[in-house]
Amino acid sequence: xxxxxxxxxxxxxxxxxxxxxxxxxxxxxxxxxxxxxxxxxxxxxxxxxxxxxxxxxxxxxxxxxxxxxxxxxxxxxxxxxxxxxxxxxxxxxxxxxxxxxxxxxxxxxxxxxxxxxxxxxxxxxxxxxxxxxxxxxxxxxxxxxxxxxxxxxxxxxxxxxxxxxxxxxxxxxxxxxxxxx
Length: 181
Fold this sequence. Notes:
Number of helices: 6
Helix content: 40-55%
Strand content: 25-35%
Order of helices and strands: HEHHEHEEEEHH
Largest sheet: 6 strands, antiparallel
Low-confidence stretches: 1-16, 166-181
Mean pLDDT: 74
Number of domains: 1
């Protein structure tokens, strides 16, 4: 029985690791989709930057956080003015393809809904160390799907987003404290 449970957990973990890779391979270079892939080497270069700024402590913390990242992949669909109906369909199809995949393999950290936009933030983690953050945004005419991989402390993410005045940072902190209960 323990062997079966271990195999199921392993298959589930492998599936979670490959969601973005599969989708990235599917949409990379495809007409109507924009993709971005930042490799671990880029993060290593960022981590080796010299800091020549009066806000040295904040920059140092940002560089330290970046040095723990191993990848960033983004898939976007934006409204094409020449073919708005087709681009809206692509954006909706991508959102509907991604949402059920991440909902089963990741833990929801935050969801924001308003009349024009839906933002979903999911994590895969071990203890308080996050190994992947998934962000899925759907607005009236576009979809953005982003995967950030690495080993990042949720408290560090909260501090960094607060310092950068990122909208929703207070919700990340709130989600972090709710998970500890």
